[in-house]
Every structure is written in C-alpha cells, then in structure tokens.
Hints:
Layout: H1 2-19, E1 23-32, E2 37-45, E3 58-62, H2 71-74, H3 78-88, E4 95-99, H4 118-133, E5 143-148, H5 150-161, E6 168-172, H6 184-192, H7 200-210, H8 212-218, H9 221-225, E7 228-234, H10 240-252, E8 258-262, H11 268-286
Parallel strand pairs: 3-4, 3-5, 5-6, 6-7, 7-8
Antiparallel strand pairs: 1-2, 2-4
Helix pairs in contact: 3-11
Amino acid sequence: MKKQLLLAFLVLVPVLLFAQTGKVLDNLSLKSKILKANRKYAIYLPPDYETSQRSYPVLYLLHGAGDDQTGWVQFGEVLHIADKAIKNGTATPMIIVMPDANTGQRGYFNSETGDWRYEDFFFEEFMPFIEKTYRIKADKRNRAIAGLSMGGGGSFMYALRHPDLFSSACPLSAATGPLTPEEAKPFIERIGNKTVTASAAQLEAYYKNNSVLQLLNTVPAEQVKSVKWYIDCGDDDFLYEGNSLVHIAMRKKEIPHEFRVRDGGHTWTYWRQSLPKVLSFVSDTFHQH
C-alpha cells in the first residue's frame, strides 16, 4: 500500500507543478488581408487555462522599436513574471497578447501616406481574431493595453483613439510622438528607420493623429478619463521629457493617472521591474469593487 501511495505521489507531483505554470507560444501567426501578409504574435496563457473552461481578461503588451513579438518573452521574462504575480495574488489570471510590429514596416500606426495600415489591421483583424480564438472576455472592462518605448506610444495612441475599448493603459518609457508639426518627419524616420516622402499636409495630419499632447487637446476629457492610466518612465530615459509633459497636461485637465519616475534608463532591467506593477494595475481594473 505504501509503495502504491509513493508511486501515486511521484506521478502527481510533476502534474501539480506543471499546472502551476503558464504557457508562452511565440511563433504563432494569422493572415492579414489589410497588410497582405502573415503576421506573427506571441501569447501567454495563464496556469489554469488548459484545465478550466472559464474566460479571461486580456492584456495587449506591445514591444519597442527593434524588437518583435518575442521581445517581452525573451528579454521581458513575461512567463516568469506573470506566473509569479498570479501565484502570489498580485495579478489575476489573464491572457497576455504580444503582436509583431517590426515586419514590413516598423510601428503600430497607419503610415503617413496611407500605404501601410497597421492600426487598421490591429483593430479590424488582429484583435477580433485573438478574441475569437482564445477564451477572452471581449469587453472594455476586461481589456487593457501596455507597452514600452515605441509600444508605449502605441499604448497611448490606441487608448486615446479607442477609449471605448480599453479599461486601462500602461505606457512605459513611451515615445509620445512629435511635440510639434515640424518634428513629425524626423520622428517617423527615427521610429521607422526610413526615408519619409509624405507631403506637408500628410505630415501635419500625422502629427495631429499621433502626438499624445495633441490628442489630449482634441479627445474629450471624459473619454480620456474613462481609461485608467499608469505612466512610468526612468529619470535617465531620453524620453523623459515627453512623458513629463504628458503628465503635466493630464494634471491641468484633471485627468486621473498614476505617474511614476524611478531610477533608471531605457533598458530591459527597468521594464522587467515595471511589469509586475503593470499586471497589478490592470488586474485592479478587471476586478469589481
């Protein structure tokens, strides 16, 4: 009898350990008609996803310039950090989706000339595909967005332009967009690493649609307030000025938000330290109070 119990225990322990671990798949793809190509993405599934029938809230987690959908997996250690946060109760079990915005053209926005429509792809194809393919609670309350650097800019823009879709947004070390119309061209060239051929009118339109400060002046304040904001940027980060100006603009408009400045620069060390707080912050918006 003792031998049978020992054998059962030895068989059960690995199963229990496995059940406590989430899963990351980082080479998945879907076909995009808008972008006329296959688009890759990575996904984190929480520890109980395979053993439950429940649906989960979702966090869209955007990478920075130069990375792809594997950035948050490889350098951001999303599997380890999310598993730990869920296990210790600081984050609710959630699905984390990481799209690739580094293939074809770099960035999360439609191009200034309209020949590359990544943002249209994200909202018209990618998000509906993800929320049909996985057991996701597809409503504003259970949907959040976060990202670093270029992806922090994407988080700002997506939540400002689609406040009806996201309950919270967490831009980290965000590229907040051109601060003036004259900065639109060099900003696009830095992000996309390409020569810009847009007309003056197209560049002005790009500035109006892709500057956080400009959008804060045009999007109704009540819509902006419907999103819970967590903004985080290191004191040595070269993007500190833009994030500080956004913080000041939000304060003047009395838009509630968390603004955190910690010791650090534009590094993965900084963002790995940010991610647990992001998971806790978005989890709080998912919960009932």
